[in-house]
Amino acid sequence: MLRQEQTGYLQELRPHIKASLFLLVMGTVVGILSAAHFFTVDSGFSDSLRSFTQIFTGLPKPLLATAIFLNNATKTLLVLLLGIIGGVLPICFLLLNGYALGFVLYSSVQSKGLVPSLLAIVPHGMFELPAVLLGASIGILLGARAMRRLFGKFETPLRNDVGRGLSFFWSIILPLLLFAAFIEAFVTSALVSK
After folding, report:
1. Most-buried pick from 9, 84, 102, 169 (CB within 10 A)?
2. If you compute the radius of gyration of the chain from its CA atoms, what whole number of angstroms results?
């Protein structure tokens, strides 16, 4: 159950979560349209995605879960912390991940059908996506507050905001990413291999 301070922090994050969701959806739409209409332009992107997934291919399930968790946790933490630089990295991260999601989803639906494609994304995505959105939202919040501090319009020290964001990361986001990684390694891989 969420503690009172975490619930209050979620309330502060609410507008940033909405913005993060909008950016992710926008990236996803562009990814779908790109895959549908400009597939040859994106063949390099498709190749880079394929080579990235080959890193994880053939790993034993516990090692696969660990690798997925470390990959997602590191990226989410970096996006959160580097959001201090005006929120630029979280915005780019959401747009690029949305693009990748849309591109892969469209390509997968075309080759495998809707149900197998959703089975490959939804089980772990129910936990991974909220975790990533929360991390990026914190990064955007930190970036907005850093910009306000530059103009003397925000009074609390930056380290307080970073500390609160990191506390939320360790207590809420990290467990979500851990759970998502184990679902992806054990459940999703079993569903996809059927």
Report:
1. 102
2. 18
